[in-house]
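Note to self: user wants both folds in one dump. Writing first protein now.
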Amino acid sequence: MKTILIIVHTVLSLWSIGSIIYHGRRPSRSIGWVLTIIVLPFVGVILYYLFGVNRRKFKFFNTKEFEQRKRFSYGNAPTSNQFKANFDSDIRKKRLNLLINANSNTSATRGNAITVLQDGGETFNTLFNAMEEAKKFIHVQYYILERGKLFERMLELFQKKISEGVEVRIIYDSFGSYTLRGRPKKRFQEIGVKIHPIMPIRLKNLLFYLNFRNHRKIVVIDNKVAFTGGVNISDKYIKHKGELGKWKDTHLKLEGPIVNDLHQVFLKDYFFASNKEEFRIEDYLFEQSKSGDVHAQVVAGGPDSSHPTIMQQYIGMINQAQKSICIANPYFLPGEAFFQTLKIIALEGVEIRLLVPKKSDSNAAMFAMFSQFEELLGVGIKIYLREDFSHAKILLVDDDLVSIGSGNFDIRSFELNYEANILIYDQGINQEMKAEFNALCEKAEQLSLEEFKNRPRWKKFMEGLSKFFKPLL
């Protein structure tokens, strides 16, 4: 029996390593998977097959749905050309606009009003108040829709609005919202909500869908106001739960022409999640009017995008930096391309500050993140550890560029998740966010290179060990 197991393990390991060599796109990721297979007999092979296989190279990646998703488009949102931003006098912004347009098929628009929501209580009060005003429809998309106080509040509100003739549609990620199965989902259906999981995980598609997530958080109300950012429907944002306490995050309230572009992202996902429910697009996308003076752009990408949209957005932004870069994120594992770009810009003299939580909901991600810090500190990047846990995904560049959304600075958001960010070209919002960022850095612990080098050996060991599992994080 032992001999048979050795033979089976050897064959599977050799097959897996051969697949990595033949189909691998990045040497660092390939080496990580090879080491995982060697260090974890059998388990490493299973993990690679579930999470590491480059499915773009296999026929079963090109399923009918993914091919349809690639081709699917409602065309340009019916927003008048008068609201398309003109950056001819600013080459930095013009290049970013062209990059995102090529990746997401969205143009920067002007005439928007954007409100930044920093506190969980404020976010949900603003969200539910806007839902109360709905006259036609409420469209909801979340990665995590979790039972609790907020869940019950949403259910009660939807029951009221449906009785008033408002349509309510919900789509959710089947992995992130795994507790929604069964009775919780039926409670929505019983009051008339049209609710569907995105990429439902079933036995027939387990190997295909398991490693992909729809990480977007989008709410659109009557196509007049929209919300997006990093906040999920979970009570952890409004009350202290567990060791991390009450989570912090950043969300956006959007009004103006940009609502059409964000709504298109939802409608595309809903169309496929609902098994192509028929509806008239003109009933949900229609002409917008000016709501403010902010220029902004939707950035949406996923595993079926032609390019790694979120990664290219972030690299495109930091490449435009002339003075400063501020990054806030709980999972800073950006991969080699972004990592090296950041180091180059730091060596060119641009001030770069990174703000991360001292504690994390994922110890593996935390140790893997800390394993990069010595190298970053060595090129002059300033790193701050905040005591509370923040789930926000924020990038500030110079005095006029801001990105807020669902996209983390990690390989999962860059290549495996469907994400949505808002790129904001505005000095006022940049200064508002930078003031908050500066205040948080003042209260946080700043790492020094010399002290960090002297951290305990066990931490260095755990950081080194975590590198084996970076492909899974």
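First done. Writing the second protein, which came from a different request thread.
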Amino acid sequence: MRRMLPKWEDMKWTYSKAGVDLNKHHSMHSLAQNAIRRIAESLGVKLIEGNFTRLIPLNDVELTMHTDGVGTKSIIAWETRKLRVLGWDCVVGNVNDVACDGVTPVAVVDYIAVSSNDTEAVNEVIKGVADASLESNLALLGGETAIMPDLINGIDVSCTVLGIRRKNSIRGINAGDLIIGVESNGLHMNGYTLARKVLLGRFKLSDEVCGVQLADELLKPTLNYGKLLLRLYNDGLIKAAVNVTGGGFTKVKRVLGEMGVEFNVPEPPCIFNVIKEIGNVDWGEMYRVFNMGIGLMILVGEEEANRVETVINEFGLRHWLIGSVKGNGKLMVRLGNTAFNL
């Protein structure tokens, strides 16, 4: 007898069912880390471990290079021909990561792969790269455009940022330190494989969802936290920061060591509630995959929290006190009357 498959409406969606296994992803990272350390040891290069970057010393400064791509958000941009956001996001995603380690980004190169001789598409992406480079005071040093009809279906965009740090601004995290969450602008660049499976099984990109056209909601540009973070580090106000990207709230583990966090989070923006409800996604899975309206976490000592909030206000960003560091090594989230572990 043939086994009956569940209807789409009955699916309990996870990132793994959508095609992305975070455990496998972490294994891939481990393979890369082993190669990085092996090569550094062979060459006699000193590696300075950041939470989002690795740096090498050069005279009296430390240098890093960081690379990331826009991911499957590009599928929606390609279909709607709203491609400028891809250039913006590929730069800003890297800027946010390096700035979390107190690194000043100084230059960028881009890589654009397309499936056809689509000059207009490439031009729009480059405009987005230029917008973000100017916003972040980055020199655009060049890049590569590849036309690969046998390999690419649509477009893929990534960037690499060169950054410099004059001194290590990162301080140790202690139990009792506070976590301030800064607003995101929607999904930013992560979780789109799951979001597309859920949302596009029910809606068209032209449908209105959460009061806006779905395509516009999903193509909101990633917020640039670079200047905010560098201001806070230069003023000596914060201990560490977390760009909430792939892995969602579990990204905070990068700065915690053996410690944990008890989160008390605000109600997430509408689009995340829609994904959860129509995809029947567990709350824990939602907070392991998406930023849930918190694009940046800032870790501060209790005595510095008010000054940090004042600076965030100057940048016009909403923020919340979302948690405190605990000594138990666990990540626990409270959302209203609901509580769950990550």
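Dump finished. Worth passing along: The domain at 46-165 is CATH 3.30.1330.10 (60s Ribosomal Protein L30; Chain: A;).
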